């Protein structure tokens, strides 16, 4: 796996930190037990690529001897954090077999930016050799989606240094990866929103690796089902999400119903873009960490957390104001 140059991301704002803290608090609360109707609703869309499902182990796995070696320095930082992450990414298969729950918990606690490209590639289990050959072949071909792709390129992270130059390296890379996938999976082709996911990957790795990770996200994390022309799976997710709101946030559900605010009017973008359009890059990277580690269930949880955090203010707004202010 090839690691790209370090990506310079702006520090989180105070609002981002506070929101992340609240989301993590809400996610801890939204640990559905097996008897919950919401748990049954989630079962069809839980990611079968998730480490937790591949390696069912007891909670004891979360207590690792490696964690006992972590010490806090005078500034409150983990002295051995880089040592732990270096061991993890260089011995991925071994750790996944023995400590999958520990890996999940480590990812939840935060991923150092320099290890993120290798982590994403490890979580998606990409085969760079075969994919590189396929990618080189695909970018030489023409796609019927090229005009539509080109139209959306300039709208993707327009303020980001890597993508803001028209016809620059960033926009060219973005076009290449999306075009290649539109040829790789002709049934899906290209769907609006895909460019933000690809753009995020390109901020962390070269084109070939970004393409390989994209293929895994689409094939193994049910995202291609979301992007299919009939968008049946997206509709199913919206129905499942609405059922969760009805059960866990009944007052807000009734308010949405009274105002005529349908779930797809605000949440479809969350699911199609994996929140890549909603938050700062640091927040988006944290969400991608969690998504690749735990699958689509995490997008449901974050969505529920957002609504619960903002429930009081949403209850006071009309449909028009909710769409303008919050979503």
From TrEMBL:
GO molecular function: GTPase activator activity; small GTPase binding
Name of the protein described by the UniProt record: Rab-GAP TBC domain-containing protein
SMART domains per UniProt: TBC
Pfam families reported for this sequence: RabGAP-TBC
Gene3D superfamilies associated with the record: putative rabgap domain of human tbc1 domain family member 14 like domains, Ypt/Rab-GAP domain of gyp1p, domain 1, Ypt/Rab-GAP domain of gyp1p, domain 3
Rab-GAP TBC domain sequence ranges: 110-295
Top-level taxonomy: Eukaryota, Metazoa, Spiralia, Gnathifera, Rotifera
């Amino acid at each position: 796996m090839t690691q790209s140059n370090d990506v310079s991301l702006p520090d989180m704002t105070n609002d981002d930190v506070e929101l992340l803290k609240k989301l993590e608090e809400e996610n801890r609360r939204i640990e559905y037990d097996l008897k919950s109707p919401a748990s049954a609703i989630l079962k069809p869309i839980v990611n079968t690529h998730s480490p937790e499902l591949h390696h069912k182990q007891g909670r004891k796995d979360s207590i690792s001897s490696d964690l006992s070696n972590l010490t806090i320095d005078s500034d409150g930082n983990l002295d051995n954090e880089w040592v732990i992450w270096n061991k993890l990414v260089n011995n991925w298969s071994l750790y996944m077999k023995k400590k999958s729950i520990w890996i999940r918990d480590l990812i939840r606690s935060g991923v150092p930016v320099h290890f993120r490209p290798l982590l994403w590639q490890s979580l998606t289990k990409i085969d760079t050799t075969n994919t590189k050959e396929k990618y080189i072949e695909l970018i030489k071909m023409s796609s019927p989606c090229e005009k539509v792709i080109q139209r959306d390129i300039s709208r993707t992270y327009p303020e980001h240094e890597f993508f803001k130059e028209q016809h620059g390296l960033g926009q060219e890379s973005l076009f290449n990866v999306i075009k290649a996938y539109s040829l790789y999976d002709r049934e899906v082709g290209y769907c609006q929103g895909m460019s933000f996911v690809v753009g995020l990957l390109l901020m962390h790795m070269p084109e070939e690796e970004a393409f390989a990770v994209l293929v895994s996200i689409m094939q193994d994390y049910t995202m291609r089902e979301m992007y299919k022309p009939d968008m049946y799976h997206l509709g199913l997710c919206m129905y499942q999400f609405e059922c969760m709101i009805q059960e866990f946030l009944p007052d807000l559900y009734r308010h949405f119903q009274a105002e005529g605010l349908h779930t797809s009017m605000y949440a479809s973008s969350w699911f199609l873009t994996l929140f890549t359009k909603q938050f700062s890059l640091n927040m988006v990277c944290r969400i991608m960490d969690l998504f690749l580690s735990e699958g689509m269930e995490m997008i449901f949880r974050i969505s529920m957390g957002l609504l619960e955090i903002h429930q009081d203010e949403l209850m006071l707004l009309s449909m028009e104001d909710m769409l303008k202010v919050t979503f």
